[in-house]
Amino acid sequence: MVGVADDGVRQVVRFCRSSDGVNIAYAVHGSGPPLVVDACWMSHLDFDWDSPIWRHYLVELGRIATVIRFDERGHGLSDRDVDDLGLERRVDDLAAVVDDAGLDRFAVLAMAQGGPVTLHYMARNPGRVTRLVCASTYAGGSGHVTEDDLALEEAFEALIRAGWDRKDPAFRRVFTSMMIPDATEEQMRWLDELHNKAVTAPTAYAARRARRDADASDLMARVDVPTLVLHSRDERMNDFEQARRLARGIPGARLVALESRNHILLEDEPAWPVFLREVTAFLAADRDAADPAGSPVTALLTERELDVLALAAEGRDNAAIADRMVLSPRTVERHLQNIYLKLGLTGTTARTAAVARFLTGR
């Protein structure tokens, strides 16, 4: 599945299978070093693509990185009928996405509820993540849950069960107004609709309850990569104290407070260019270290990918390559897509350009 927005930015949607057989949808767009976005509570890869509140994230991040984002199990384009929404499965889903995308090393943008998942993945897969950006997320297990907090959470869960699937968005608007209190009515209506499109009420309820138990507090001290923590100072979804805990707990982490009340930064608010500037500067080292235009293909591709490209350079089509390598044509196509991704190539000339890079050794 390929999506092309009005401004010409293109995303490719793919599917991979997690450890328990659940199909996870992920999308790739942009160019540069890989940046995996892990992952928002509510997402729909296709619906988000033209969103008035997400579009600026996607366009601008795609200018500085190859962005890989995915719909969590039970959400969006991923399998909906899912029983297990726990932390262990979510970590497996992240692993399935990055492996299917052919990523050896990559930066992660952990957003919203993605913090515990990312920290657990990093602990289990040392050396894979190059840099970590934590955006309005948390490690979990704050230890300061009051009776009022529990009562409020019970009220939220009751709202989900009673009103999430209703045509009238009044119940969903409670969550929308907490996430983007400074948004326009148009933006709020879009988020109201996303909530309904992204997930059903039973899954939204189960997912929210599962997230209450997700905790990676004991893993913060083990993070050994450069880390940037960005958080809206006055947002109401994840308290700013969560950012302080991350910055204190992760060795060498740098905290940037964003002057905003919005959980999702809006394009026209002053905090957005601060966020973008900080992330761009933070990822610059990865761009310098892995410039597809200046690095030889042998340094960027795996041995299997080089074998596929060598056969393509002989003029063989995908079926002939598959026959020679005893693979399925779909697997050959997946290898080629990963090659194009790593070399920063897009469009109808990507195959020709990749072969040219291979033949010249560049």
Automatic annotation (TrEMBL):
Q: Which CDD domains match?
A: LuxR_C_like (cd06170)
**Keyword GTP-binding attached:** no
InterPro entries this protein is in? Answer: AB_hydrolase, AB_hydrolase_fold, Hydrolase_4, Sig_transdc_resp-reg_C-effctor, Tscrpt_reg_LuxR_C, WH-like_DNA-bd_sf
GO MF, one term, reads: hydrolase activity
Q: What keywords tag this UniProt record?
A: Hydrolase
Looking up Pfam families in the UniProt record yields: GerE (PF00196), Hydrolase_4 (PF12146)
Q: Which domain of life is it from?
A: Bacteria
Task: Specify the HTH luxR-type domain's residue ranges.
Answer: 294-362
Q: What are the GO BP annotations of this UniProt entry?
A: regulation of DNA-templated transcription
Q: What is this protein called?
A: Alpha/beta fold hydrolase
The record lists the organism as Nocardioides euryhalodurans
